[in-house]
Design brief:
This protein is mainly alpha-helical and 78 residues long. It is built from six helices and no strands. It has two domains: 47 residues, no CATH class; 29 residues, no CATH class.
């Protein structure tokens, strides 16, 4: 997994387009590559979650999901 993540960090657009199934492109390579650039920024290059990752995830969920807003979650148990 780590090798794949490292490879993805340095892959060119054409390498990516030639690797993924055509159905992933949804008929528009430019849109796929643009979206990929934004997703790539969020990917961990070493597959490790930063120490503040769980708290950030919970904060994000609570901002968008009304069912999560009133929940208290002990992140040390996740």
């Amino acid at each position: 997994m780590v090798r794949a993540l490292k490879c993805l960090q340095t892959a060119t657009g054409s390498e990516l387009i030639n690797t993924v199934p055509e159905s992933y492109l949804l008929g528009d390579c430019a849109v796929y590559l643009d979206a990929w650039q934004h997703v790539k920024e969020a990917m961990s290059p070493d597959d490790l979650m930063p120490a503040d990752g769980p708290a950030t995830s919970l904060k994000t969920l609570q901002a968008f999901d009304p069912n999560m807003q009133s929940k208290t979650i002990d992140l040390s148990k996740t």
